[in-house]
Predict the structure of ADP-dependent (S)-NAD(P)H-hydrate dehydratase.
Amino acid sequence: MIPAYTGAQIRRAERPLLEAGQGPALMQSAAHALANQAVLELRDLYGRVYGSHVLGLIGPGNNGGDTLYALAALAPRGVRISVVLTGSTAHPEALAAFVRAGGRTAEASELDDLLERVDLLLDGVLGLGATRPVQLPRIPSDLRVLACDLPSGIDADTGAALGAVPGAHATVTFGALKTGLVVGDGHLAAGRIRVADIGLGRHLPEPEAWVLEDHDVSKILHSSDPGWRAGSVHKYRRGVLGLIAGSEAYPGAALLSAGAAVAAGLGMLRTHVPPAIGAALLAAAPEAVPLSATELKQLGVRSRRNDKSTTGRIGAWALGPGLDATDGNGALAHALASELPAVIDAGALSAVTPGAGEARWILTPHAGELSALLARTGLHIGAAEIAADPLRWARWTAVSYDAVVLLKGPATVCAGPDGYTVVSRSGGAELATAGSGDVLTGLLGSLLAAAGPHPDARTLVRLAAAAAYIHGRAGVLAAAGGPFGAATLLQTLPVALRDLGV
Ligand SMILES: NC(=O)C1=CN([C@@H]2O[C@H](COP(=O)(O)OP(=O)(O)OC[C@H]3O[C@@H](n4cnc5c(N)ncnc54)[C@H](O)[C@@H]3O)[C@@H](O)[C@H]2O)[C@@H](O)CC1
Ligand SMILES: Nc1ncnc2c1ncn2[C@@H]1O[C@H](COP(=O)(O)OP(=O)(O)O)[C@@H](O)[C@H]1O
């Protein structure tokens, strides 16, 4: 997992180096990394660097300074270099170096024309210093953009866009990954992210969040499960998931969750759905073993007596997809009383009370559902506000409910009640299709059932992020075949798991 830090953490880590007079050296390292990436972008575009024309949009601070030095470093390679200053000033030494290297400072009135003609744009308007809405020019959609440290106008901590931020194809970020690049608008605007080491290493504190990479997924699953891949495995050891889902209004949600749980490879699936959809569920997932209302009631009663030996072999719950309050809550109450780990989604989110999670629940809201969860703690925060600072509100809710929270969105934020946070960035907007969340719930339930008894909250956070990552990968695979609906994810999930080495 890659550590990510807030802007303030990065600034604190830089302080001792700046105090030791290393500011210019830091800037040179940053500029060098940016110039190297510009070379790679030009080679990727045209197969050559010589003879190309690179434009820098330059703001008033060090971000503009980095970019000016990077442009100066490109000139000896036969690159024509131009800049437009967005304000009345620019970093003086860097501007002088740029001019010495043969660079040209164009007037603002020339900008539109230059944007049509140049081969590459370096966005050096604002980096860590972006604090208020920024006015930036409209960038032609076919112009390749390389952002210096952060796309200008992205808040380094929250990822919120301060104004209309031009998206970058790639971002070279200095010292360490910033949280604002991996969530919210920043996640969407950053493009490919390269972290350039400028020597902050030992000065960096405990990271604010961790970001999953491909190879983390199988590590997480192998370290969290008690060995179902070992020779002695049998179906109960491999994991039994209880699924309470579906209603006459939303029958498909139960089918998608059940299908995903089976596709992810669990030992046994027990399902409790309304009678009207029982036959359809068994047709979609013949592996499912129905869980009757009587059995459910017994589970609840026994666990209240603390009789842990008789939990019907169910190791975890997936609760809520397609559930409505009328037919679900009786069954839900029994499941929630059973003291087993549970994925709690959609209709079941309205059955949880603040403080009651005992760090064994994973709540899986989107921003609208998170807003409703927060409202039950007395805080009225709208979905747009949540999307503007997803790390903060996912964590807040995790603390308030004493539960792990998986906050859905373009990037998925998984936070535990102790603040431990893991972000999954796989997949894209192709997942924004009705029912894809139901697939995620079945998949995560399946991983949770395989995780063995009493996983701790940090294990739950990692499992939740791994499920989001696999889900995203399944979306990418499904999209390769053209537009798709959520049911296609049931076919691509096993392929995603295999590709990720699970
Ligand atoms: N601090 C350091 O030692 C290092 C900084 N580096 C670079 O320096 C950047 C941070 O530099 P700065 O602190 O100078 O900040 P920026 O260059 O990001 O911003 C410059 C100034 O612009 C002003 N500003 C904020 N919002 C604005 C808006 N909407 N319109 C116009 N002006 C606005 C602010 O007052 C800010 O101080 C990093 O992102 C990175 O690129 C790197 O060179 C590595 C070392
Ligand atoms: N723009 C997006 N980019 C990437 N993933 C997205 C995007 N929009 C939604 N998703 C993902 O798609 C899923 C949608 O879940 P949800 O909102 O619960 O849908 P539903 O209730 O219809 O099943 C979540 O995993 C979410 O993270």
User: Anything to note?
Assistant: The first helix runs from residue 7 to 19. The chain has two domains: 2-211, 231-499.
